[in-house]
């Protein structure tokens, strides 16, 4: 692993909360609060966390679909936040997104051919017969048929629609695709098909994925590295295998214990987190997880733990990672 | 190509889709057959438009000519009879012919003025809603200002400045009525631009104008059709009101509005001067309203059902 394809540097995104007579800014939702990570070419970086933790916002800000409050995103070393409108439009060829909801992400009034062909038209890649030819190829690449080109989105099932969304994202031969919970709206039986397709496409086109999901089970299947988010913060970043074997953060541990194991006889200790996620408008002081953490001490309420590298790129933001590690060890033995 | 079970699933879904496929026009036509008032309105308006277009061939007399036999020996209007089906006015002109030519004027103004109003309103609403920021504030405050004026008063003031002629009336009506469409479109664009398929096209590097015209405009079409048809009724009525107060279509050119105004003087002895153009006006406005209502019901569920 040499130079990262994408570097996220101290990214922050606050949404203003307006209210009152003159709709003045009352407070801010701290959707993303100072996160940094690197994504390397050819890998799949999984981004996990509960709903509302800022993972989707991270994806959107990385593509500049929302403007960041501060921080930077470097794509191949260039800041995408400093691009002009036309430069950004051209840059979009390299970075695409696959949306969570295959029903709302396709224009119901356009045919599949128009939807998948549009990027080819606006970037002057192909038109007329050549465009149709490319669209047919793309449809077959994602496991649909060439004659679907004249159909409308409502004539397809959820899984097929997601394939159309994938074909559209592939049309420009991007380097990076952000997969924003691409399978969570699909039936379980269809999920693995779409995941396998994404894996195949990665091998075929050398794609880099940022794979956003709310549970570790889907990410495990896909990712080379994983970042765990909690309330706008990255709490742990690690190699995928390492994360599953030796989780360092109590939140990661809780997420891991929530993965269902298909063995009724296995008596496993489940960590059920107490309470709700605190409001991102007013995040807790100190460690953001202390309100629900079973190991929380006084220091956790006072001081915010920095993200520390433990070596081998395993980073964690917890004051007690060592003692906690021993406790975990004690329990597994 | 993927695994056989995937292929099978795709084939199944295709069969289903083929069965479900129903054309929009056919659904629309079927709903019209179940809606008698709307169907009668459509028939009435088709006849009216045909009559207006074919006026020179359909009208029994010259609408501007005063006939000697069109006045009684005392010089009063002739009541409806054989030569003059709907009677004559105090100048001996044939009411029916004047109404037929009047339909031309009233419908032209109603449709053209409304058409211009729709174009302005849709453009303003789309640009304000999509781009937001100061453009939005500027355009929508202008809309608010125009909306705040009493319509008739504003029209009178504008025509007093420009002088009454058909072109001026059309422009004035258009300049007043675009605000309604702008408001409706603005609101719809605000919600449409947050839809995921719009975000998706933005990610592809599609420019804002292409997004507006290719992706957002088609979703506005049913609202435009509904408000457009309701708008024709209002514009026809405003034209009649302006002509009625004497600043609309210049006499002697007939319009339903100025015919009613002229008939007012003699309605006690010759009520037909007033009644027939009045009925034509009421029926036309009613027909446009009924069609607007029908379209609203017919197009709405189809838009969201997909």
Structure description:
The complex is a heterodimer of chains A (333) and B (306). With 333 residues, chain A is α/β, with parallel strands linked by helices. Chain A has helices at 55-62, 85-91, 112-122, 128-141, 158-170, 188-205, 216-222, 240-245, 250-257, 298-302, 321-332, and strands at residues 4-19, 24-40, 44-48, 70-75, 78-79, 95-98, 176-180, 208-213, 225-230, 233-239, 308-309, 315-316. In chain A, the strands form 2 sheets. Chain A has an 8-stranded mixed β-sheet with strand order 6-7-8-3-9-10-12-11, with helices on both faces. In chain A, helix 4 (128-141) crosses helix 5. Chain A is globular. The model of chain A has no long low-confidence stretch (mean pLDDT 87). The mean pLDDT of chain B is 84. Chain B is elongated. Chain B has helices at 4-20, 24-33, 36-53, 55-58, 95-131, 133-148, 151-162, 166-192, 196-203, 208-244, 256-264, 272-305. In chain B, helix 9 crosses helix 10. Helix content of chain B is 75%, strand content 0%. Chains A and B meet through helix 2, strand 6, helix 3 and helix 5 of A and helix 1, helix 9 and helix 10 of B.
């Amino acid at each position: 692993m040499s130079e990262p394809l994408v570097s996220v540097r101290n990214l922050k995104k606050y949404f203003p909360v307006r209210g009152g007579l003159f709709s003045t800014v009352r407070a801010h939702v701290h959707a993303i609060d100072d996160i940094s990570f690197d994504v390397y070419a050819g890998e799949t970086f999984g981004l996990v966390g509960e709903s509302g933790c800022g993972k989707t916002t991270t994806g959107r800000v990385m593509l500049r679909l929302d403007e960041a409050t501060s921080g930077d995103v470097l794509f191949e070393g260039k800041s995408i936040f400093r691009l002009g409108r036309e430069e950004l439009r051209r840059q979009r060829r390299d970075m695409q997104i696959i949306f969570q909801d295959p029903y709302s992400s396709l224009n119901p009034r356009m045919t599949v051919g128009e939807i998948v062909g549009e990027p080819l038209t606006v970037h002057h890649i192909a038109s007329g017969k050549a465009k149709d030819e490319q669209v047919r190829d793309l449809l077959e690449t994602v496991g649909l048929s060439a004659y679907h080109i004249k159909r409308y989105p409502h004539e397809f099932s959820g899984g097929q629609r997601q394939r159309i969304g994938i074909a559209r994202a592939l049309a420009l031969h991007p380097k990076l695709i952000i997969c924003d919970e691409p399978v969570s709206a699909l039936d379980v039986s269809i999920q693995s098909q779409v995941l396998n397709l994404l894996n195949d496409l990665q091998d075929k086109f050398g794609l880099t994925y940022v794979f956003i999901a709310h549970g570790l089970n889907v990410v495990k299947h896909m990712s080379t590295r994983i970042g765990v988010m909690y309330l706008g913060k990255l709490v742990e970043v690690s190699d995928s295998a390492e994360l599953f074997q030796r989780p360092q953060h109590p939140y990661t541990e809780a997420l891991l214990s929530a993965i269902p194991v298909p063995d009724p006889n296995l008596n496993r200790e489940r960590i059920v987190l107490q309470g709700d996620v605190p409001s991102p408008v007013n995040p807790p002081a100190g460690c953001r997880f202390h309100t629900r953490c079973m190991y929380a001490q006084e220091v956790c309420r006072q001081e915010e733990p920095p993200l520390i590298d433990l070596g081998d790129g395993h980073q964690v933001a917890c004051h007690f990672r060592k003692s906690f590690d021993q406790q975990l060890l004690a329990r597994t033995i | 190509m993927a695994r056989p079970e995937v292929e099978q699933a795709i084939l199944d879904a295709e069969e289903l889709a083929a069965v479900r496929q129903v054309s929009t026009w056919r659904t629309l036509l079927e709903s019209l057959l179940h809606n008698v008032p709307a169907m009668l309105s459509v028939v009435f308006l088709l006849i009216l438009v045909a009559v207006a277009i074919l006026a020179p061939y359909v009208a029994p007399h010259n609408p501007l000519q005063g006939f000697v036999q069109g006045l009684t020996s005392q010089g009063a209007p002739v009541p409806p009879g054989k030569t003059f089906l709907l009677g004559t006015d105090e100048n001996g002109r044939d009411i029916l012919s004047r109404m037929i030519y009047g339909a031309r004027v009233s419908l032209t103004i109603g449709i053209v003025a409304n058409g211009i109003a729709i174009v302005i309103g849709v453009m303003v609403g789309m640009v304000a809603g999509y781009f937001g920021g100061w453009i939005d504030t500027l355009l929508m405050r202008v809309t608010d200002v125009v909306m705040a004026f009493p319509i008739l008063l504003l029209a009178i003031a504008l025509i007093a400045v420009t002088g009454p002629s058909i072109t001026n009336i059309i422009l004035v009506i258009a300049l007043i009525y675009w605000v309604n469409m702008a408001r409706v479109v603005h609101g719809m664009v605000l919600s449409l631009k947050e839809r995921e398929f719009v975000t998706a096209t933005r990610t592809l590097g599609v420019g804002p104008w292409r997004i507006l015209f290719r992706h957002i405009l088609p979703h506005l079409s049913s609202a435009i059709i509904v408000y457009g048809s309701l708008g024709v009724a209002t514009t026809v009525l405003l034209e009649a009101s302006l002509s009625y107060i004497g600043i609309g279509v210049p006499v002697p050119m007939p319009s339903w509005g100025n015919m009613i105004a002229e008939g007012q003087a003699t309605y006690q002895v010759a009520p037909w001067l007033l009644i027939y153009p009045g009925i034509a006006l009421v029926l036309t406005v009613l027909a446009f309203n009924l069609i607007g209502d029908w379209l609203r019901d017919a197009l709405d569920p189809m838009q969201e059902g997909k």
